[in-house]
Amino acid sequence: MRILVLHGPNLNLLGSREPALYGSDSLASIDTALRQQAVAIGVGLSSFQSNCEGALVDHIHAERDRTDGVLINAAAYTHSSIALRDALLATALPFVEVHLSNTHARESFRHRSLLADKAIGVICGFGPASYRLGLDGLVEALRTRGVV
Ligand code: DQA
């Protein structure tokens, strides 16, 4: 089983970006922890971050044939990107949406997600642990569906 982790705009600045909201872990440390978790649960995993909507769409297209499921923190594109939603639907890749912060406890424009209604599930508010919980949930759901 191969999992693709996607990180949207400004997540490359994790660690120094608004630490009161997003914590002090860097994106590299989150990716390292996800890789270790993937080894422990026996799945393959690759990560990609971009600040550009089109690059994220292109990456989904490029990886679609070697990906079984997507773990995505689309960051601000969660609330705005029909293109990202369409890319996930066009490739029919099952996905779990994650956020470090509890978006529902923040500004009202963060309450709406253009991805959530098509996701297997959504996890938010647990800081970097949202990714760990999201990966566990995604792999469990894929195994239940019979993806090796
Ligand atoms: C975020 C929440 C989004 O609203 C915001 O635009 C981000 C990060 C999170 O992980 O909490 O960039 O996705």
Automatic annotation (TrEMBL):
Domain of life: Bacteria
Protein EC: 4.2.1.10
GO molecular function: 3-dehydroquinate dehydratase activity
Enzymatic class: lyase
Pathway the protein takes part in: Metabolic intermediate biosynthesis; chorismate biosynthesis; chorismate from D-erythrose 4-phosphate and phosphoenolpyruvate: step 3/7
Pfam families: DHquinase_II (PF01220)
Positions of the record's site feature: Transition state stabilizer: 17
Protein name: 3-dehydroquinate dehydratase
Species annotation: Aphanocapsa feldmannii 277cV
Gene: aroQ
